[in-house]
Automatic annotation (TrEMBL):
This is Uncharacterized protein. InterPro entries: Plexin (IPR031148). GO terms for cellular component: plasma membrane; semaphorin receptor complex. GO terms for molecular function: semaphorin receptor activity. It comes from the Eukaryota. One of its GO terms (biological process) is negative regulation of cell adhesion. The lineage of its organism: Eukaryota, Metazoa, Chordata, Craniata, Vertebrata. Residues 54-75 are annotated as: Disordered.
Length: 97
């Protein structure tokens, strides 16, 4: 398959009761390739479609972090981060006797 660039997805503001909404959310990745983090916790991805990403948050509110540093003050809520998990495959050469 040829390598293709897909446009960045368009995201709507996050709402606590609804899944993440937007456009073209599934063009560049599948449900199994998505990693969703809430602060230091992982949100289990249940659904990824063109317009919705739904994940089950950790049972307890995770600790907020930014690049490993805890945030303070009014900005102390955990960040919601969606990223693409990349699998690295390596081919090994095997010598036959």
């Amino acid at each position: 398959h040829p390598f293709r660039y897909e446009p960045n997805p368009i995201l709507q503001p996050l709402n606590q009761q609804d899944p993440l909404k937007g456009e073209n959310l599934d063009l560049a990745m599948t449900k199994d390739e998505v990693l969703v983090q809430v602060g230091e916790g992982v949100c289990a991805v249940k659904t990824l479609t063109k317009n919705h990403l739904y994940c089950e948050p950790p049972p307890q509110q995770p600790t907020p972090t930014t690049n490993g540093n805890k945030r303070e003050g009014s900005d102390s809520l955990p960040e919601f981060i969606v990223s693409l998990q990349l699998a690295v495959c390596r081919a090994a050469r095997h010598h036959r006797p």
